[in-house]
Amino acid sequence: MQLITVGGPPACGKSSVILKTIQHLREEGLKVGVVKFDCLSSQDAELFQEAGFPVLTGISSNYCPDHYFVTNIEDCEQWGRREGLDVLISESAGLCNRCAPHIKGFLAVCVLDNLSGVGTPRKVGPMLKTADLVVITKGDIVSQAEREVFAYRVRQVNAKARILFLNGITGQGSWELSRLWRDAPDDVPLTGGRMRFSVPTAVCSYCFGELRIGEEHQQGTVRKIRIPEPETNAG
Length: 235
Prior knowledge:
single chain; alpha/beta; 29% helix
């Protein structure tokens, strides 16, 4: 199974980008699911469910969203394997700009929108700086000059990342993105892996610099995501 992390500021178009892109993957016969991490609420699950994609939603509530992500992504990966997924997309919204939901060895995507202003790339921090691929949305409602300046500012923060423009309404650019996702690393062990950037100080082991993924590395205050038990056939 391929695991791809997608992060970006709220309302930049992450869910639209994901939905348009995974439809291409499904047309190739791949089973794709989405796990959505958010802080207070999310209605995006309905979009994926209506389109026929398995989706899991985790709300961090008053818990640090970055700690919530790293202490649950392993369980979410197991959920994806039980669902028989070929590709699992992890979408993180509302995470603070101090952190990044990206993991070493897995394809990391950052979504930004042109309307957020040319100063945004410098404010996003490690979520952009540690990404392999940057998707820029809403380029159809700004000038060519604004698109170029925005892309230049992205390259100033992350010169190594590939930049792709995508229209979340029409889907223009989504096929190209699906080609890149199709080539994402496959069956990379998650347990024992490492985050690309440390999460902020709080009250669990990750507050003190822990980077390793796995329950044996999680101490202190840990909140787990609620995942439905797999159905069993009676008899």
